[in-house]
Amino acid sequence: MKFIDEARIEVVAGDGGNGVASFCREKFRPFGGPDGGDGGKGGSIWAVADRNVNTLIDYRYAKLHRAGRGENGRGSDCYGKGADDVFLRMPVGTLIVDSNTGEHIADLTHHDQTVLLAKGGDGGWGNIHFKTSTNRAPRQKTEGKEGERRELRLELKVLADVGLLGMPNAGKSTFITAVSNARPKIADYPFTTLHPNLGVVRVSHEKSFVIADIPGLIEGAADGAGLGVQFLRHLQRTGLLLHIVDLAPFNDEVDPVKEAKAIVKELKKYDQSLFDKPRWLVLNKLDVVPEAERAKRVKDFVKRFGWKGPVFEISALTREGCEDLINEIYGYLEVKRAEEHRAEETQMTEEARGISSIDPDDPRFKVLD
User: Fold this and answer.
1) DSSP string, 217-229
2) Shortest CA distance to 162 belongs to which of 55, 244, 96?
3) 296-334 pLDDT, tens per residue?
4) 107: Cβ–Cβ under 8 A, 6 or more apart, which residues?
5) CA 309 distance to own-chain centroid
6) Which of 38, 124, 128, 351 could disulfide-link 142, Cβ–Cβ 3.0 to 4.6 Å?
7) Which helix H or strand E contains 155, and what residues bound it?
C-alpha cells in the first residue's frame, strides 16, 4: 500500500430537516389543533483513531465527505428521521488542522479516540411548539439549521519511542531490521527508504519499544534537496533520536564528520524543538574498519565532530554492539516514563488541592446575613 502522510479534505455535516405547520384532520375532530412535527437532525462527521489503519491514502483521493440531511417533519405529530453520522477512520498519530484558521482541532494519539469534526444542523420546530392558550392555531414553523462545513488538513506523525536520523546509506534500514520486526527494503544505493518504517523492538517477553526509520537527509534538505524534510515530522513525537553515521563510506572523498554536521544543521533549520530532543551518536559499519584502526577512527571522529553526548559503536550487518545499545535505550526510556508518570501525579495532586482548598476570605463563600 502506498504510504500517504498528508491529505486535505472537506467535511460537510448534514442540514437539519424543516419543521412543518399542520393541523389535525380527523373525523369527528373538527378542531383537532396543530400536529406538525419537528425536522430530523442532520448527520455529524466524526474522526476515529484506528490502529489498523497506517496511511491517509483514503483521504488523498476522496476529498469531500458529506453527511445526510435530516428528514422534514410531518403531520400527526410525526418527527422527521435524523440522518446517520459519518465516521472517518484515521491512523493513530493523525493531527487534524483547520486549513482556514490554522486551529488544531484534534490530535489522535490513542486507539478508538473519537473527535467531532463537523456538527449536524438541528431540526426545525413544527407548529406544535407554538401552541398557547391564546394562539390555538399557530401557523409558525422554523427551518432546519445548516450543518457545519470545514476544510481540514490531515498530517500523520507516526508514534514511536525512538527515531533514526542519518544520511542515505548510513545503515538505518539495516539497523532497524537487525533489532526489530520491521523489514524495509535494503540495497547498496542511496534513498532506498522512501517512506517511514516502524518496528517493535523486543527486549524481553514483556519489555519492548517502538522505533521509526525515515528516509535519509542530505545537505540542503530544508531547501528541498533529496527528499527534503517532509518526513521529519515523524520524529517529533519520539523521545530519543539515534544519529547513525557511516564511519566507513565507500567513497574516500566523503567525510563522515562533514555529513554528520550537515544533518545537525538541517535538523535545527527544520525545527528547534526537534533539534533539542535527546540525541545519541551511533557509529555504524565498524565491520568494514580493521579492528586495529577502530579505536583511533572513533576517537578522531568524536573529536572533530565536537560531540559531548553518548557514543555507541555498532555494526548493524553483523549485529555487533546492537544488543548493548538496545538495552541502554530501554533503560533510558524507562527512566523517562517514570519521570513523566511522577510529574503527572504531582500535577493531579496539586489540582486536587486547589479544588479542595477554600479561602475563607473569598467573598464568593461568605454567608449572607
Assistant:
1) P-TTGGGT-TTTT
2) 244
3) 888 988 898 888 888 898 888 888 888 898 899 999 888
4) 94, 95, 96
5) 30
6) 124
7) strand 149-156
Dihedral sign from CA coordinates of 296, 300, 306, 307: negative
- Nearest alpha carbon to residue 236 among 298, 158, 339: 158
Cβ atoms of 13 and 143 within 8 Å: the answer is no
Residue type, 108: L
- Do residues 228 and 221 make contact, with C-beta atoms less than 8 angstroms apart? yes
- Cell numbers 500500500 label which residue? 1
20 by Cβ neighbours in 10 Å (0-12 / 13-18 / 19+) ranks as buried
* Structure confidence by residue, pLDDT tens digits, 185-228: 555 545 555 567 778 888 887 788 888 887 766 555 555 554 44
Q: What is the largest CA-CA distance in the chain?
A: 110
pTM passes above 0.70: no
Q: Considering only CA atoms, which of 256, 266, 238 is closest in space to residue 93?
A: 238
Cβ–Cβ < 8 Å for 40, 70: yes
